Amino acid sequence: MKLERLEMPLDELHDKLARTLTKNSNKRLGLFTSIDGGQLVTLLLDPKDGTAELLISPLELERNKYRSLTPHLAQFHWFERALFDFFGIVPDGHPRFKHLLLHEEYEADFFPLRKIALPENFENVLPRRYEFLEVKGEGVYELPVGPIHAGVIEPGHFRFSCFGETIVNLEIRLGWVHRGVEKRLTEVPWQKAHFVAEAAASDTACANAFAHAIAIESILGVTVSERAQYLRSIALELERLAMHIIDVGGIGTDIGLLGISSAMGRLRGKALGLADLISGSRFLRGFISPGGVRPVSERNLSEIKAGVISLRKDLAPVIQILSENQMATERMKDIGKLSRSLAHEFGMVGILARACGIEYDSRLSFKQGKFPELAPSIVTELGGDILARTRVRIGEIATTLDTIEKLVDGCPHGEEKMVLPEKLPANATGLGIVEAFRGELIHLIFTDEAGNISRYSIKDPSFQNWTAISIAIRENLIADFPLCNKSMALSYSGNDL
Amino acid sequence: MNFNFNFHTMLETLGFTATFLFLPPLIVGVIRKTKARFQNRIGAPLLQPYYDLFKLLSKSETISKHTSWIFRSTAAVNLSMLIILAYLAPWTSFRPFAMSSDLFLVIYLLALTRFFTVLSALDAGSAFGGFGASREVTLALLVEPSVILCLASLGSISQSSDLAFVFSFKNIELLNQPGLWFISGCGLFLASLVELSRMPADDPTTHLELTMVHEAMILENSAANLALVEYAHFLKILILLGISSQCLLHAVPYFWHTTELIRASASIGCIILMAVSIAVIESVAVKLRWTKLPEFIAYSVAMSIFCVFIALGKNLN
Prior knowledge:
The complex is a heterodimer. Chain A is an alpha+beta fold. Chain A has helices at 10-20, 77-87, 181-187, 193-197, 205-220, 226-255, 258-279, 298-324, 326-332, 340-345, 350-354, 386-410, 461-473, 481-488, 492-496, and strands spanning 2-7, 28-33, 39-46, 51-58, 65-67, 90-92, 140-145, 157-163, 166-173, 288-289, 292-293, 429-436, 439-447, 453-459. Chain A has three domains: 2-92, NADH:ubiquinone oxidoreductase Nqo5 subunit (Beta Polymerase, domain 2); 140-173, no CATH class; 200-452, Orthogonal Bundle (Cytochrome-c3 Hydrogenase, chain B), CATH 1.10.645.10. Helices cover 40% and strands 17% of the residues of chain A. By secondary structure, chain B is an all-alpha fold. Chain B contains twelve helices and no strands. Chain B has helices at residues 7-38, 48-57, 69-88, 103-123, 127-157, 163-166, 172-175, 178-195, 214-217, 223-250, 260-284, 293-316. Chain A binds chain B through residues 141-145, 150-151, 165, 254-259, 261-263, 266, 325, 327-328, 330-331, 335, 477-483, and chain B through 35, 38-41, 127, 131, 135, 199-200, 203, 205-211, 282-292.
């Protein structure tokens, strides 16, 4: 993939972004961060051409702040908050400026990824105390939920402001599983970094390892063998298959169709079994690494194909029961609606963007294994509601099954793994974009003069999509929140990193 | 009231008491087992609800410091009221002693248990208890008319509000009314689904606090307190399913002319059949959206209104 690196002064950045991130432009925001605290880094993607542009805007050290982009470009709102948490760079004029990931327990001047010294007159404008948006009015009450939940899920705090049974506002506070993944990735030797990278979000282990491998290989300028590319794509699709199956089953649990959920649970186990056949790990851990993949025998590949065929047969009746259940359809329709324009404005990706009719699937735009050559067509729906999201998932289960079959058929013989150079080149930039099952996943790597990784930035699809829940659930019933949440199935750890 | 204390009555009373004390967890076990089979699972043993209750009894209790005596006494109050109801309400054809039970007494004893449950939910001061209580009261408001009308139309034909007399298989006025019995049985069954917080009104297996109705109200209870609350709820299931199954049995002329023993075993059998049908409904239906629930309750209310029409027609003749 072509990555263009441009220096762009701050003033020009505002104009450039205002011009490029409009409704009609092909470009979209990939990620927004900094390398060591002395500059802003904006990654712009062009899904149509499959190219990417990296804008680097140096900051004046004494000022340590810049005019916030959020007032005009809403999709920057979490990026700018994360940027402050990690680097201490202040977005001047951010409408809801508060911490995103670091909590009260951290020191006031702790900015973990900042490498250059803070300016001498730096004053932390933001106390560690977190203030929720307060909704006032007679009859409005607040309902705190989490961070520990009733089910076995990850932690996240939801603050509902309700008027009777209706949600007026939902504020989401995350960061409870912040582990310092991005920093750790700069500390381990790069040959072993893929173990850390794939643990960024463990249900997305394969996609993370894949994006990591693409990014490292793009720094080294190498291309892995044809067989490795096929096997990587098969692994990515197996992960998507297993996770889509359990997410559809999760919808069954939440509307009370326990038969669907237990059948889907069983079938997900079968899909994980296929993942085990290809990688020796049900969650595809350690399979993809820079340079290739672990060896896979021909026998296992043909077993995977047989497994896919039987899985397709087993899934059909369960999905039919779910989609033909009139009560279930009615339960999901027109709830948790996300409008296309807001999804676009907030830069939503993945299932929930496709469920509002946004045709973006990075498998069709950016080189990742055997995609876009063998990528399936995009599944979209127009409703933007829970039903649409479920239908997109069901549609993708079908296209994924077909794609795996096609990939296994086409998989050539050859070497799985190539030998990589000892050292990474100095001052290089690597980019890996992969369509994880939740949506577009980006790994961006910078190396320093000595060829070590100096900055590793991960943009999980959930990072943009968390805002979607707050938007979609507004004016809905509070009893519909769990279902709406499930239909988005976002990652906490992928967001918190 | 006619108490005839001889040895035989004593034995019968003991047997009756043992039956209604033993049965409720079994009914719940039947529902859970059937649901598990519908999901292709083996499921927990039939007697698992008993084990769970005993497990809860041996645990140590955590009580919120914001609660008052209401929270602590509710479980015991509710259980004692439901035990009284088990003696009063016509949930089975078999009753050891003839005690009159007024229709309104039965209905308002049920309402009183709800009143205390709601109070204790509000007592702990948690947000979940609050909206669980508000939902419960909203549902009760919608369902209560249907229960009253179903039972009252039976009462108005038999010219008595004594349920023991209405459900005695002796009332000649009601012998030739299988339609009325059947419709009121169905109406009561649908109303019971809502009253008992079963699907499609509430999902008893959910762990999601935000969607709960009944479960949200008892989130603060633990250990022995929770065991009592659970057991009282099981007992309520038995009583409400029992009343609707008695309606259905009265619709079958055969049971009017048969022996006490067959009637009694048919009563228990019918309750278990109803438990199975609850499980079937819960396996194929989804939990309805909160705003759609009145539409479901309307079925029950419509049936109760039919009962009123039949009773009116009969009385005008």
